[in-house]
Design goal:
Layout (H helix, E strand, L loop, with lengths): L6 H6 L3 E5 L6 H10 L4 E5 L5 H11 L5 E4 L14 H19 L5 E5 H5 L5 H7 L1 E3 L7 H10 L3 E2 L8 E5 L2 E4 L8 E6 L2 E8 L6 E5 L2 E3 L9 H15 L7 H7 L21 H4 L5 E3 L3 H23 L14 H4 L3 H8 L4 E4 L11 E4 L2 E3 L4 H5 L5 H14 L3 E6 L2 H13 L5 E3 L3 H5 L6 E5 L6 E3 L2 E5 H5 L13 H9 L27
Parallel strand pairs: 1-14, 1-15, 2-4, 2-13, 3-4, 6-7, 13-14, 17-19, 17-21, 18-19
Antiparallel strand pairs: 5-12, 7-8, 8-9, 9-10, 10-11, 16-20, 20-21
Length: 518
């Protein structure tokens, strides 16, 4: 689908390469081509907002290649709170997946944010040791499982309802493991695990059976005698003897978890590793804003560190003690990050026609941003759907594959109906890019893809819902409308007008009257 994009040729160009003319939305297609060459690929996003969209796109393009998502902690640097249970679970699941991948290499795509890439993490041997599995019939003490859950960050409660919780009642242990839809109930007879059943957390009723339980940790900090001793020693070496009101030192010394303790991660382990240690020799691809985001994030880290350090020095009176670890212990600087890349292949994507220079080789992707129909939408005398239909018909006649992308199944279905009413035929729903390749001449694909805008290559044309309809969300006016205003607009509509609500997925029509949602 991407003519001329040869991963082996790119690898031959050297370790530092810029790929230009990569319009928004096309990045997953190129990442997929790199992964299909047989190696794992890391794609660095400037922020985490697009991670789920990129993952969905890759599921359409290469459904047979696994995608691992490694988010950053969802809290500020040097915060007083820990990362959320969901984020911690996703991180640990991704790290466990990378460890498994290193043992059995295969094509894979790793999505990682700039924030996650700058952050150091627990060593691979520690993460691997935190995992645990059991099957019915295994001999294992229930108290040992409960102790392991507590060390790994699970919360002990009376009744399990949320991810990361566990409860013990007689010979039954309930636990809600990250990455699963339902909690499980372990039924013991003595030290024998008799059964593993799923149950509904609302009604507590059994819903099914499981043949295995796989546990991942809920936190990157495991409170073991060794890590507690190491923390106490490192904390005193860094800050001197702790005061009586030092809640962190007291809690960890007693083997209790403390809110925000992850921000002292370097004190719990002899060393920390980076994502590059988990992904040796894998090519790393940066989106076009990633390097700018690296600098901004590092500045934020230093600002928060200085604020905490001043507080620890007594510049801020009446504040709860907070003694921050040095930034270089927990984070990479942009310079250290670039050095950590080593001789591996590093690729920068840019949407611009990048000129040669700066010691970097440039490869130009044969692609461009798709037609956005901006002028047609702005002209009240033109029906944009008629123009779109002619455009798609011309592209199909030229022998190009055409994908019409919608944000949701519902919005795509409505968009397809409207195009059909404007005499665009041969529209076929597709679930994967392979389905698009199998289309007969003259057909166009309908696909659910979270694209802000479309793009074009010599063989493929992607028309996004937003290209046709304008902004996906209807923006509120500066003055918030009252209910009476909305009703007045509705009553003024003619009988043939159609009201499109902002929540219905299709935001703006040409030829249909639209009013703003209250």
């Amino acid at each position: 689908m991407i003519p001329g994009f040869d991963p082996e040729f790119l690898a031959s160009l050297g370790t530092a390469l810029t790929v230009g003319n990569v319009p928004p939305g096309m990045e997953p297609f190129l990442i997929a081509e790199l992964a299909k060459a047989g190696r794992p690929v890391a794609y660095v996003l400037s922020d985490g907002q697009r991670m789920a969209d990129i993952e969905q796109m890759l599921g359409f393009i290469v459904p047979d290649i696994p995608v691992l998502t490694l988010p950053a902690w969802d809290c500020l640097p040097y915060d007083r709170v820990s990362p959320s249970a969901d984020t911690s679970a996703r991180r640990l699941s991704a790290l466990s997946g990378l460890i498994a991948h290193a043992k059995k290499p295969h094509p894979a795509i790793v999505l990682v944010t700039v924030n996650a890439m700058l952050q150091k993490m627990a060593p691979r041997d520690v993460i691997e040791s935190l995992a645990f599995s059991a099957k019915p019939g295994n001999q294992i003490r229930m108290d040992d499982i409960a102790a392991r859950l507590e060390r790994n960050g699970f919360d002990r409660v009376a009744t399990v309802r949320e991810v990361g919780e566990f409860a013990v009642r007689g010979g039954i242990l309930d636990v809600f493991v990250p990455g699963t839809e339902d909690p499980v109930r372990l039924d013991f007879f003595g030290d024998t695990l008799e059964s593993i059943r799923t149950f509904d957390p609302a009604s507590q009723r059994t819903t099914g059976q499981r043949n295995q339980l796989v546990l991942q940790a809920m936190s990157e900090v495991a409170l073991t005698p060794e890590t507690i001793s190491r923390f106490r020693r490192a904390y005193i070496e860094a800050f001197g003897a702790p005061s009586r009101d030092d809640g962190l030192y007291t809690a960890v010394s007693e083997g209790r978890r403390f809110a925000g303790m992850e921000h002292w991660l370097p004190f719990f382990y002899e060393r920390l590793e980076t994502v590059f240690d988990y992904l040796p020799d894998a090519p790393v691809v940066f989106d076009h804003l990633a390097h700018e985001a690296l600098a901004e994030r590092h500045t934020l880290i230093l600002d928060h560190y200085e604020a905490r350090r001043k507080q620890a020095d007594g510049a801020l009176k009446d504040a709860v003690p907070y003694k921050p670890v040095a930034p270089d212990l927990l984070y990479l600087s942009p310079e250290n990050l670039i050095a950590s890349l080593g001789p591996r292949e590093v690729i920068d994507f840019t949407p611009f026609d990048q000129p040669e220079g700066g010691g970097r080789k440039v490869y130009h992707a044969l692609s461009r941003q798709g037609r956005a129909f901006v002028e047609e939408r702005a002209d009240p005398n033109i029906n944009v759907f008629d123009v779109v239909v002619r455009h798609i018909a011309d592209e199909r006649a030229a022998g190009r594959r055409v994908i019409i992308a919608g944000w949701t199944e519902g919005s795509l279905d409505r968009l397809g109906q409207i195009l059909a009413e404007h005499h665009l035929g041969n529209l076929k729903p597709t679930a994967t890019l392979a389905d698009v390749d199998r289309l007969e001449p003259g057909q166009a694909a309908l696909a659910v893809l979270p694209l802000e805008s479309g793009f074009e290559t010599d063989r493929l044309v992607v028309v996004a819902e937003q290209d046709i309809l304008g902004d996906r969300l209807i923006r509120r006016s500066k003055r918030k409308k009252r209910a009476s205003d909305f009703i007045a607009e509705a009553s003024a509509l003619s009988s043939g007008d159609i009201v499109v609500h902002a929540d219905h997925g299709i935001g703006r029509f040409i030829g249909l009257r639209t009013i703003e949602a209250v």
